[in-house]
Fold this protein.
Amino acid sequence: LLVNRMRGVTIAGTHGKTTTAALTALLFEAGGLDPLALVGGDVPAFHGYFRDGHSAWIVVESDESDGSFELLDSSMSLLLNIDADHMDFYSDVNAISAACARYLARVRPDGVLVYNADDARTAALARTADHIATRISCALDAPADVTAHSIDLQPWSSSFTVALPCESFPVTLGMPGRHNISNALHAIAAARHAGVEPDALQRACAAFHGVRRRMERIGHYRGALVIDDYAHHPREIAATIAAARQLGRPLIVVFQPHRYTRTAALLDEFVTVLAPLERLIITEVFSASEPPGAVTGATLCDAVRRFVPGACFAPELGAIAPALDAMVQPDDVLLFLGAGTISRAAHALVAAQEQTP
């Protein structure tokens, strides 16, 4: 109801929605547009998930997992990617694409579509959305209306030059990783189209250090840096691991699979993305209220052991610490991944370490 009665900017896609929605809202705020914002992650600048705005603009992270994004009549849509996920709700990736098409069909005819030209499914869908007055493509690799070049990836930030149809300017983003540059391009394209000036965009991007549980540094354990991240899909895990590699330190990954249906449907993809790791701990699946399935955390760990013989299985979260103690070194990075209770385990380890005399 809020979106459909206001100038709704909705962010959709399988990956990157939370970061992109948060940054889009902050860019609109920096430009004086005073948006209402609803984001699916804890945004430090908002002290929560919500920004109280007093204009006609509303920036919302939409949700494809249950089809509810099909209820939105957007003035501006940011479609980031389409990937196989939520197999508890969709039969296959084609069903997800069809749902995205229905979501785009409700973008207002005088509205705007900002989309990822690097993602083949998204680009194909955007080409068919010819009822939308303005379509803006973004890409790091493919030809597009909005691109980034002179990219410099730093351990905890990145810099690049953003090129729009009639202008270009340098941007420093307070987040690491190529995937976050892609997210930022979409947010910048949307905000610039809404009238936000480049200097405001530059200030807000530099001040943006992400959303909680996205490459979030939470402390140390036995001298190793502990990072907490929400990644739970193979594509997200790959992007987060690539960003963690930029730190230039040895890496240990602790991964909690999320949902039995996702683990079973994407088992081969999980194995592929986890196989290059040298040290790995896999926990039991966080069920998210699903009944147990035939494919479990132990199944995944057994499959990964063909490539990572030392991969450990932790049937309970309490088994993580003993497994870590046998492998962790002070210079390591401990990367905790998952959308379930794994974050609590990471924070508990840090808290226990800090309480140790």
In short: The chain has a mean pLDDT of 95.
